What we know:
Strand content: 15-25%
Structural class: alpha/beta
Helix content: 40-55%
Domain NAD(P)-binding: 6-329
Radius of gyration: 19 Å
Number of helices: 11
Largest sheet: 7 strands, parallel
Cofactor: NAD(+)
GO cellular component, one term: cytosol
Protein name: UDP-glucose 4-epimerase
Amino acid sequence: xxxxxxxxxxxxxxxxxxxxxxxxxxxxxxxxxxxxxxxxxxxxxxxxxxxxxxxxxxxxxxxxxxxxxxxxxxxxxxxxxxxxxxxxxxxxxxxxxxxxxxxxxxxxxxxxxxxxxxxxxxxxxxxxxxxxxxxxxxxxxxxxxxxxxxxxxxxxxxxxxxxxxxxxxxxxxxxxxxxxxxxxxxxxxxxxxxxxxxxxxxxxxxxxxxxxxxxxxxxxxxxxxxxxxxxxxxxxxxxxxxxxxxxxxxxxxxxxxxxxxxxxxxxxxxxxxxxxxxxxxxxxxxxxxxxxxxxxxxxxxxxxxxxxxxxxxxxxxxxxxxxxxxxxxxxxxxxxxxxxxxxx
Length: 344
């Protein structure tokens, strides 16, 4: 019998890549997703890539009875990877209540249902936004949690606290919190990638859509930050590298290898790249020139942040291996494939 894993938000960008890696590693996967920021045909593409079709249930994590029904339909789920969340910083500033409801209640529902259905572990999709603008770089897991710069960032902080408090109360649950830095790129098959509904809120899909002519121009928000070229610095991690970290986390939970009931790992490359450096790297990797302009700063943006991934490298046995050039090339190949498929 394969171990059953429930993946919420499994047709989303990171979720879909993680489902493939879980299936490649011998797990049986059940996806739940409300398709608010993804499409059902992602399940077809997961099957094309991995050769296995995951179970898919269209359920909103805010629907407690609907979630309960999924656990009843698929007994024996060993652990959950919880991706399902609203995730755009700018939108969260404009629609805070939407973010608090979606991101907090979905987790609370899962944590309430886990003991009922004997689900012992959860891997939570957290974010480097919990560190705010760090005092020291690179950021370790011991860095203080700063006041969030956006409602989105705040939901990640609060969710981490909800998990800690629930486990401290005696709930029979173990958790691994993965604080990711900036996931980019696409599957090398070009069958899976980032496909946001509407105007992209993240840099890379906007960049590739500009490169192919869907968007007229890419805006670089600010060139007056305290960085070598004035643009913001981030730690960009390949989405397949990131997906593999989730498989390691699941294995660690199931095999009861955790040293504490709640563990935290930074998932990043350890290398900071500015937005302008990223644009140059894209042009070099693909040979495509980008139409971009410098505009004013954007609310909620952090000046510079990159990971110290040593804890994940040593304790977790995980390392980012993909180069930035290959990662950007994969994002471009995905955009070209979307055009071939007549999407956008």
